[in-house]
């Protein structure tokens, strides 16, 4: 070792290098945060549009913003099924309400009793956000946020219904951590194509959700075919989770009262 290469000098150089690297990493985290937030918001809007069947293939960020501007957000009180003013959640606009944050806030949500928590989400918000597509004063599409546990993760997405508050337009998830190729097939357009046209409720028999995922393929000759969707192959547990979350959010604890009100025109 030459005179100049002392242990203390090596430590100082290593220390300075660590400082420089940590500054670079911290700066990129801070500088990239707004871009990440913007992309996250855009991803959410893209998924809402996709569930509603309004997404145009290859649309640019600006085009997505324009398409999204035709969708109106509202707040719904899940206990009454009535619309609520955004001021009840301390917001000026329903768009600014963060339902996932509210689900962790004891002032805006409550623990779900064990037996009723079929979607395994632990807490239920008092107010939920819905998005409506309207044309000539009539509701064309109702987009509902849905979430529930699969096998490895909570899936977050949107269920879109036609103006009859019963016929499915689409179901899509913007966040989950199920296994690619197994539970992750929830993102496969071929599986998503099984949903449009299905009915959530068998209204002749009441207003409990009838829709469910079945193991294998739906037998089209059976009377419940219109309430049944093909399960994901090799992913029975994710499929069960999806059945449960769709039933939870269209059931008593979810949007059932709201959807009943829409059907009754009140
Ligand atoms: C590495 C690994 C990942 C898996 N990922 C999933 C998954 O994302 N969703 C799921 O339902 N099952 C998944 N499974 C399979 C489950 O453990 C279980 O076997 C399966 O859900 C049973 O479905 P089947 O009756 O259709 O085979 C995975 C298994 C392994 C070994």
Helix count equals 6
Strand-residue fraction?
15-25%
User: Main beta sheet, described?
Assistant: 6 strands, antiparallel
Q: Cofactors and ligands present?
A: flavin mononucleotide
Q: Structural class per helix/strand content? A: alpha+beta
- What's the arrangement of strands in the largest beta sheet? 2-1-5-6-7-8
What gross morphology would you assign?
A: globular
What percentage of residues falls in helices of 4 or more residues? 25-40%
Q: What is the H-and-E element order?
A: HHEEHEEEEEEHEEHH
Write down the Rg.
23 Å
Distance between the termini: 87 Å
Number of domains: 1
Number of beta-strand segments: 10
Which blocks of ≥5 consecutive residues have pLDDT under 50? none
What is the residue-averaged pLDDT?
A: 94
Features:
266 residues, alpha+beta, six-stranded antiparallel sheet, two-stranded antiparallel sheet, 6 helices, globular, binds flavin mononucleotide
